[in-house]
Amino acid sequence: MKIRFARYIPLVIAILALSGPAQSQDLAAFEKNVTEFTLENGLTFIVVENHDAPVVSFLTYADVGSVDEVKGITGLAHVFEHMAFKGTTTIGAKDLEAEYAAMEKVDEIFADLRRERHKGHQADPERLASLQQAFEDAQKAAREFAQSNAMDEAIDRAGGAGLNATTSVDATRYFYSLPSNKIELFFSLESNRFLDPVLREFFIERDVVKEERRMRTESSPVGRLLEEMLATAFKAHPYGEPTVGHMSDLDSMTRKEAMDFFNRYYGPANLTILVSGDADPAHVKELARTYFDRLPARPATEPVETIEPPQVAERRIVMEDKSQPVLLMGYHKVDVKHEDDLVFNVMSDILGSGRTSRLYTSLVKDQKIAVNASSFTDFPGSKYPNMMVFFAFPSKDHTAADCEAAIEEEIERIRNEEVTEEELSRAKVRARVNLIRQLDSNMGLALQMAYFHVLTGDWRNLFHSIDRINEVTAEDIKRVANEYLEPRNRTVASIVTMEDESSE
Question: C-alpha angle 501/503/504, rounded to 5°?
């Protein structure tokens, strides 16, 4: 359900097109449609009114992602995202007392199974098989006491759409849209989700995440290469760990660990809720106090304290695979709050955004050594110092090494020569256009406002960033390129195609 933000598009365009006092005036006009408030327990609401259509989009932004995990529980943020749809003590429960007893039985058998597995080669195969069967039988019995899709079905019956969630290194987001006359349903369901969650079918959902890992990483050459690159580039910071988790961690995690994770990271002070669309702020505030005041206050979690040390030497991964060759080159860069972050965005646009970019023009159009070449920033996240990445897919009869040499030439150019005013102007226009495209729906606006509000401290930075992009100069790009795009600061990862022995 994509309800366009038609009433505000002219105003948004005006804000993005202008700078200085004029932009401030238009932003002030937009602010009249925005209401912010924070409950006593620390949960923040941002309401954006748009009464063009009787629809409201809801986004719950949890300030927790895989970056908050430690060794042994990697993948848990993603697993909990799945669990958050499994209902509560009142949603999806048939016989709660019997269900809890059945889930505890599942946990007990899994604990025995895990202990036996930890014996390694000394494990008793017959006991392993017996425990595995008992584990599966116990899960089947526990499912009899629950309606696991009750939350989804309640939203569907109310005319909801777009129900989904995402987990990244930095955040977990839950979102959907409802008719505006069903707004109270959101407050009831969402507050229950974080008040009394029941982690039913935990191991079943854990296995779903394991299958996602097999599909996206273990069965994907590029997925494996990306994982190797991150693990090599980040030797200290948890950005080096896969969001989907290591398979051994997924195999061994428990329901108790998931509940401990929830209790630590899902306090109201870690949640921001965006309500965007046909909503009355006074009514929203009333419902928020009625339903979300029930959530007990907890201290806001502290940021990750581990800092990735400066990279002092180039790191390199060469992966042989029966795949087309691929090249990735990652350079460490600053986080979203650093003044140079937007310089990287403009530089990446000039080097690698679209068919007119320098990389595409050089590698694909002119030299014809690649079928695609580009660059992007904020990998794998933006909350902490991250990476700017260059990539290329070599064309037939060309290699990753060919593309690496060509990309290095373009990097040297931008380090030694100032970009043209035409390139700079074009990049700034694209920044405005891309932002407008992301804001042309209730949900799009909610996603962007939440991102800036949580990571930079104020949703208004969504609009102020355009002012700051306008201030980026050719000298800034050259300075940042020379400071960061140097060989010792990079990690190079490539796939070298294995010869097919059967063809020899």
Answer: 70
Burial tier of 486 (Cβ tally within 10 Å: 0-12, 13-18, 19+)? middle
The pLDDT value recorded for residue 154 is 95
Question: Residue 315 class from Cβ within 10 Å (0-12 exposed, 13-18 middle, 19+ buried)?
Answer: middle
Instruction: Record the pTM.
Output: 0.92
pLDDT computed for residue 441 by the predictor: 81
Residue among 229, 172, 222, 232 nearest 383 (CA): 172
Domains of the chain: 59-93+146-292 (3.30.830.10), 315-497 (3.30.830.10)
pLDDT of 1: 36
Distance in angstroms (rounded) separating the CA atoms of residues 49 and 180: 12
How far is 430 from 46, CA to CA, in rounded Å? 28
Q: How many CB atoms lie under 10 A from the CB of residue 224?
A: 18
pLDDT at residue 438, as a whole number: 75
Extract the tokens encoding 77: 């943020």
Cα(292)–Cα(309) distance, integer angstroms: 41
H/E stretch holding 454: helix 442-456
Per DSSP, the three-state class of 430 is: helix
Asked whether the predicted pLDDT for residue 86 surpasses 70, the reply is yes
Alpha-carbon distance of 258 to 56, in angstroms, equals 31
pLDDT band at 504 (very low <50, low <70, confident <90, very high): very low
What SS3 state is found at 56?
Answer: strand
CA atoms within 13 A on the CB side of 481: 24
Distance CA 88, CA 96 (A): 10
Q: How many CB atoms lie within 10 A of CB 119?
A: 11
Q: Which residues are 47's β-sheet partners?
A: 35, 275
pLDDT at 240 over 60: yes
**pLDDT at 436 (0 to 100):** 76
CA distances from 36 to 101, 179, 211, 281, 461 (A): 43, 22, 40, 9, 15
